[in-house]
Design brief:
The complex is a heterodimer.
Chain A lengths: L7 H10 L6 H13 L3 E4 L6 H11 L3 E6 L6 H4 L1 E3 L1 H13 L6 H8 L5 E3 L1 H7 L4 E6 L6 H13 L1 E4 L3 E4 L5 E6 L7 H6 L1 E4 L5 H11 L5 H15 L9 H13 L7 H6 L1 H4 L3 H12 L15
Parallel strand pairs in A: 1-8, 1-9, 2-5, 5-8
Antiparallel strand pairs in A: 3-4, 6-7
Helix pairs in contact in A: 1-2, 10-11, 10-12
Chain B lengths: L4 H6 L5 E2 L5 E2 L6 H14 L6 H13 L5 H12 L6 H13 L9 H22 L17 H14 L2 H15 L10 H12 L1 H15 L6 H34 L1 H8 L14 H27 L8 H8 L20 E7 L4 H14 L6 E7 L3 E3 L1 H4 L5 H11 L11 H12 L7 E6 L12 H9 L2 E6 L13 H5 L4 E4 L3 H11 L1
Parallel strand pairs in B: 3-4, 3-6, 6-7, 7-8
Antiparallel strand pairs in B: 1-2, 4-5
Helix pairs in contact in B: 2-5, 3-4, 5-12, 6-8, 7-8, 8-9, 8-11, 9-11, 10-11, 11-12, 13-15
The chains are: A alpha/beta, B alpha/beta.
Chain lengths: 303, 513
């Protein structure tokens, strides 16, 4: 079996070429997933590039991205396959109309064949002959029971259809599952995957991301953006700014023609970074405060 | 994440992967045995590592060379750690098992001498750069020649420049000098850490760094700029502390061996951290862990409500729907059980060490307050006060709890716990508010300083309330020892639970709804 990558550093360089800045963890695990033929479960706060990772990997290996967006109430017929029963009915009626007295077995054989099968993302990924990357997005949104649907695919790369038998993958696709961790995923699912936690990037990496993703931004502005965002993330907030929000903010500042961010500009545009009124108020207060107020830390640190 | 720079290139120079999968590391110990010990230790630390995951890890290390320390670590983590909250525990075990083997970790003189020379080079370079150059004798003796002042200056410079290599060298030198480590001495790492940090005066250094930054700036720093500078330096100081901790661990392991130290250095998972004995850093972890926990709990509880079992046949509804089928009850309708949302009254002891526990419980209860029809909170030490008002109209629970701690009127005489008086006062003022829908939660260790227990209040409460539960942050074996009278109160409660960590707290809240 041929592998897609030769080394961890190759993964890293190629991801960088498509403007995805990985770190040791990300590149290492993508490499490992390729070698071991295992799915990757990507977890982390919203907006840290989980979905983007799958897209970028698909991009560098020139594969088609098949995406299954999860939601509450997702079922087999939306995720795996469905029989096209309207077409089946038509077929039966057509057989009658032609006066063809084919035996029941023949008809059954006929209507439960490939022609009447509607493939859904999971089955499509399994049957694909061209290279594919399967992305199962926000897997924590489905119920625990529905998770079981995924297990066969994730461990054996096959789908069992009672009428047709078992369909096995012709090639092992790279599979990414993303989760925002709103609930604990089942042990069975976790066991089958490699686990990758993508956290907010550190300041240096965030700066590089800003530089890579926002064309025309100056080094110094990117640096200021990254530093302010880091400070904001250290506060006790309902929702810390995500990387995508950082990028939006950087773009806004660029459009406004800002060269140096002062407290006034920071508070004026903070609604791009922060989405809750209480968070915004808190940030305003922190930034307006004179020098030393911040070092006291949160109310829990008094012990 | 401390990454031992040297560790990555020299720890396993002779690592070789044989075809049968037995990889050898520098010490000659087969990889398989090493991994087995490692995984056993992970399980000991509380991480749930299954057999499949164990096999995956074995498979994974075949593909990642041991020399690439960072990639190797992530490879193991990806196969073995499936919950990010367990990362810290994993990292400690990893460091003990993999980062500290090999030549440069011996406590021998060569290693230290080498290190000292590095330090001297750095010092010379630093002075060359700053143009002072008035240093006369080279401190040939492995950094020993440096005076404490010089070391302090090195520390300052390394932090100012954010130079990782220099920080590491300074960390090593200061541990050597100040920690006063003696071979075989059965003291944990925290003691050495404390001794080292005490000598370094990091707060003073931080002040100096800020002053320097202020001075260097072309124009006066604005509040925002000052804050950013401070955050940057705080980050660097935190890095330095990590280096120091790593150095202490390294020396401890070198002294007493991997297996002995793995146990001592083991870090509990956030959900297993004891509320009563959490260190400052652990408190921070707990605080971080409680957000996802409340969110998860809320989702789970809401789902439980929505997907509740179907109830008995709803006759009226079925008949009404039968009209559309010409009177045939073709579509039976069922009643959905609507479990009444309980009303919660939390009465919490906020004295001394129990306070942390009370805070977390209040936090949790308020975070999922949508699952209750009403939440009221009371706090006491020897007096009692209602604090519901702090939580109303604010979305910020942290702030509310802060106000509880500072503004609530809970001291009656001397500010030592007096459960008896607090309960009595509570009963007179708010006892009538307890109704048949109310669930009362009492949080505390029931260490009553030998005052009168007034347990009749609890008895009365139970008559009126739906449930009365007692949550005690002490281990069960300590109950009813010394001045603890939890047993006396517990006889009148519907249940008394040990609630020492987030895991137990979560289980209780789940059970409550």
């Amino acid at each position: 079996m041929s592998f897609r990558f030769d080394s961890v550093s190759e993964v890293r360089t190629r991801l960088r070429e498509v403007d995805y800045l990985s770190d040791d963890g990300i590149a290492g695990i993508v490499y490992l997933a390729d070698r071991l033929g295992k799915p990757i479960l990507v977890e982390g706060p919203a907006g840290t590039g989980k979905t983007q990772l799958a897209k970028s990997v698909a991009d560098i290996i020139g594969a088609r991205l098949i995406r299954l967006q999860c939601y509450e109430g997702l079922d087999e017929s939306k995720a795996l396959y469905e029989w096209n029963y309207k077409k089946q009915l038509l077929r039966i009626q057509a057989t009658k109309a032609e006066g063809d007295d084919a035996s029941w077995e023949a008809i059954e054989e006929n209507i439960f064949s490939d022609d009447f099968l509607l493939t859904r993302p999971l089955l499509e990924a399994i049957r694909a002959t061209d290279p594919v990357v399967l992305l199962i997005d926000e897997v924590d949104r489905v119920e625990v029971e529905t998770e079981a649907l995924l297990l066969e695919i994730l461990s054996d790369y096959q789908v069992s259809i009672p009428e047709l038998g078992t369909i096995t993958a012709k090639q092992i696709p790279l599979v990414f599952l993303t989760s925002n961790n709103t609930r604990e995923l089942s042990e069975a699912l976790k066991r089958r995957c490699l686990f990758l936690h993508i956290d907010y990037p550190d300041m240096e990496r965030e700066k590089e991301i800003v530089l890579a993703k926002v064309p025309d931004i100056t080094e110094s502005l990117a640096d200021q953006v990254a530093r302010i965002v880091r400070s904001i993330r250290q506060m006790e907030l309902k929702k810390s700014p995500s990387v995508s929000e950082t990028l939006d903010w950087a773009r806004t500042l660029l459009l406004l023609g800002v060269e140096k961010i002062d407290a006034e500009i920071a508070t004026g545009t903070s609604n791009i970074l922060l989405k809750y009124q209480t968070d915004i108020a808190k940030a305003h207060k922190e930034f307006a405060n004179e020098g030393s107020a911040f070092r006291k830390g949160g109310p829990f640190s008094q012990q | 994440m401390t990454d031992h720079g040297e560790g990555s290139d020299s720890a396993g120079p002779s690592a070789s992967a044989a075809d049968d999968g037995s990889v050898l590391v520098a010490s000659g110990q087969p990889m398989l045995a090493l991994l087995n010990g490692f995984i056993a230790e992970l399980r000991e630390a509380g991480l749930p590592v299954s057999l499949t995951e164990n096999l995956d890890a074995m498979e994974a290390v075949k593909h990642i060379p041991l020399e690439d320390r960072a990639a190797f670590k992530y490879a193991l983590a990806a196969t073995l750690v499936k919950n990010h909250a367990h990362w810290r525990s994993f990292e400690t075990v990893f460091e003990v098992y993999f980062s500290m083997r090999g030549r440069q970790y011996a406590l021998g003189e060569d290693a230290d001498g080498e290190l000292g020379n590095d330090l001297d080079d750095l010092l010379a370079e630093m002075e060359g750069a700053s143009g002072e150059g008035d240093r006369t004798g080279a401190g040939g003796g492995g950094g020993e020649g440096m005076s404490p002042e010089e070391l302090a200056e090195m520390l300052f410079q390394s932090l100012r420049r954010g130079d990782q290599a220099m920080m590491r060298a300074v960390a090593r030198q200061s541990v050597r000098r100040y920690a006063g480590m003696e071979p075989g001495r059965p003291v944990g790492g925290t003691y050495y850490l404390y001794r080292t940090l005490r000598n370094l005066d990091l707060d003073g250094v931080l002040e100096r760094l800020l002053a320097q930054a202020r001075e260097e700036a072309p124009e006066p720093l604005t509040a925002l700029e000052e804050r950013l500078e401070a955050d940057e330096f705080n980050q660097r100081v935190a890095d330095l502390k990590q280096e120091i901790e790593a150095e202490i661990r390294r020396r401890l392991v070198a002294d007493r061996g991997v297996d002995a130290m793995a146990k001592t250095l083991r870090k509990p998972l956030p959900e297993d951290i004891d509320f009563m004995h959490a260190s400052r850093d652990e408190m921070k972890l707990l605080r971080q862990a409680i957000y996802p926990l409340t969110r998860k709990l809320a989702v789970r509880l809401a789902r439980k409500r929505r997907h509740g079992r179907k109830g008995p046949l709803d006759f009226r509804n079925t008949v009404r729907h039968s009209l559309s089928y010409g009177g045939v009850p073709a579509e039976p309708k069922f009643k959905y059980p609507r479990p009444a949302k309980p009303e919660i009254m939390v009465i919490a002891d906020i004295s001394g060490s129990v306070a942390a526990f009370a805070r977390f419980t209040l936090h949790l209860v308020y975070a999922i307050s949508s699952q209750f029809s009403k939440v009221r909170a009371f706090v006491f030490i020897d007096g009692v006060d209602e604090v519901t008002r702090f939580f109303e109209g604010t979305e910020d629970i942290v702030d509310a709890i802060h106000r509880v701690n500072t503004e609530a009127d809970v001291v009656w005489v001397d500010g030592h716990s007096d459960y008896g008086h607090a309960f009595e006062a509570f009963w007179t003022r708010w006892g009538k508010d307890i109704g048949p829908k109310t669930t009362v939660l009492i949080l505390g260790d029931a260490r009553n300083n030998y005052h009168a227990s007034q347990s009749w209040v609890i008895k009365e409460m139970r008559h009126r309330a739906r449930h009365v539960f007692w949550l005690n942050p002490e281990p069960r074996s300590y109950w009813d020892t010394g001045d603890s009278i939890v047993g006396e109160y517990a006889t009148f409660c519907d249940g008394a639970f040990e609630c020492r960590n987030l895991r137990q707290l979560e289980r209780f809240v789940d059970h409550l709804v």
